[in-house]
Amino acid sequence: MHVQSVTDEDFAARVLESDRPVVVDFWAAWCPPCRLMNPVIEELALEHPELAFFTIDADANHQTVISNSVMSMPTFLVFKDGREVARLVGSRPKRRMAAELEEAVAHPALTG
Amino acid sequence: MELRQLEYLAAVVSHGSFGRAAQEIYVTQSALSQQISRLEDELGLTLLHRGPKGVEPTPAGLEFLNHARAILGRVSEARAVVDDHIGAIRGVARVTATAYDSRALPEALAAFHRAHPQVQLSFQHASAPQIVEQLATGSADVALLAVDASGTKLPAHIAQLTVAEEPLCLLTARGDPLSSSAVDTGAGGLTIEDLRGRSVIMPGRATALRSLLDEAFAQVGFSPLPRFETNHPEMIRELVSAGLGVSIIPRSWLADYGPAVTSVELSQPLPSYRIALLSTTQPRIPARDRLVEHLRIALGA
C-alpha cells in the first residue's frame, strides 16, 4: 500500500473509522528529522499491508495537531478501532520503528 | 561640489531611499533631495534613478559614487589624524544589538558617555539580519550579536571579538514534574531528548539561539512545533512561567527580572551561546574605535 495524506477534513473518516490499524505520520516541511523518515515510512507501508499508513502536514492541519496534542515533529500515532494505542516521537531506525509498530498492534496500550 | 553633497549621495544609495537616508543623517528629506539635484545639475547628468522599487545609482552615478566614497574615507581619516593631535575624541558612534544580546549595554554605554561626552552615541534594537546589513552598509558602527557555530555570515571588513560565551539551561514552570524529577535525582539526567512531545517556547527565527536549538533538536531526531515564538527574552520567561511550555535559554538570562521559574542544568551540554562584539573597520573612526575598546573591557572580553 502507498502512503496517502489526510487532512483535518477526512481524519475522522479515514483514520478513526478505519477497519485496519492505522499509523499517522505528523510531519512538517521545515523539520529535518521528518525528511529522514519519509523513505522509512514508504518502505514500511509496502512491507506491512495489514496496517494503513497516512501522513498529515502539521502546518496545514492545526485542528488535528491540537486535538491529538502533538508537540514535536515527527510524531507517529498508531490508532486501533479509533483509539490511540501508541505514540512514537522523533526519528528512529527502520528496524526499531517496525518492532515498535508490531508491538503496538499486538499489545495495544491506550496512550492518548 | 561640496563634501556634504557626496555624503548625502552615499547615504541615499546605502539606504536605497531618500526618506531613510534623511532620517539616518539627521537632515530633512527636501534638503537632501535639493543638494543631490544641485550636484546632478553641476555635473550635467543623472546620478540616481528614482524607480518604483527605490533609488538606484545610474551607471555614471555608481562610478562617481566609488570616488565619492574614497574621498569621504580620506576626509574622515584626515579628521582622525587631527583629533589625535588635540587628544579629543568626538564624532558619532552608532550602536545596534538584538533584544537578546543588549542587556549589558546600557551601563557600558553610560560609562563611555561619561568618559567621552563629546561622542554622540546612538542605540537601536534590530534583528540579526538587519544588524549584519547595517554594518555592511555602514549605517551602524558597533554591534552586539550572538553568532552561531555554523558561522553567521559577516562581510570581510567587519571585525569580530567574542565577549561572552555561556552555557544554555532548561527553563520550566515552577512545579513542572520535569524539573522536579531532575532536582530529586540530583540535578542531572535531563537532556533535550526529555523534551520529546513537550511544548517548547522557541526563540524567534533568524536568531543564533534558534539556529543553535534547531540544530541540537534535529540531531536527537525531532523538532518542537514552534507554537510560541518570541524575540523578547522576558516574554520567553513569562510564557514558561504561565505554564505554556518549557524553554532553553543562556544561563545569564536567569538574573533578569521576571516571574518565578525553575532552571535545570542539562546533563549533556548544548553548544555554548556566544556573543560577539562586531564593528566596522573602514574608514578609521576614532569614536568607534574607542567605544569598541571600552566595550571590550566593560563586557569582559
Give an overview of the whole structure.
The complex is a heterodimer of chains A (112) and B (301). With 112 residues, chain A is α/β, with parallel strands linked by helices. Chain A is built from 4 helices and 6 strands. Chain A has helices at residues 11-16, 32-47, 62-67, 94-106; strands at 4-5, 22-27, 52-57, 72-73, 75-80, 83-89. Chain A is globular. In chain A, 39% of the residues are buried. Chain B starts with a helix and ends with a helix. The mean pLDDT of chain B is 88. Classes of the chains: A alpha/beta (112), B alpha/beta (301).
Brief rundown of the structure:
The complex is a heterodimer of chains A (112) and B (301). With 112 residues, chain A is α/β, with parallel strands linked by helices.
Which stretches of chain B of 5+ consecutive residues score pLDDT under 50? Answer: none
Structural class of chain A: alpha/beta
Strand content of chain A: 25-35%
Oligomer: heterodimer
| Strand percent estimate of chain B | 15-25%
Protein chain pair with the most extensive contact, residues per chain: A-B, 20 and 14 residues
Report the average pLDDT across residues of chain B: 88
Number of helices of chain A: 4
* Overall outline of chain A: globular
> What composes the largest sheet of chain B?
5 strands, mixed
Identify the overall geometry of chain B.
Answer: elongated
Biggest sheet record of chain A: 5 strands, mixed
What's the average pLDDT of chain A? 93
Helix content bin of chain A: 25-40%
Rg of chain B, rounded, reads 24 Å
| Distance separating the two termini of chain B | 44 Å
**What ranges of chain A have pLDDT less than 50 throughout 5 or more consecutive residues?**
none
How do the strands line up in the largest sheet of chain B? 4-3-5-13-6
Total helices of chain B: the number is: 10
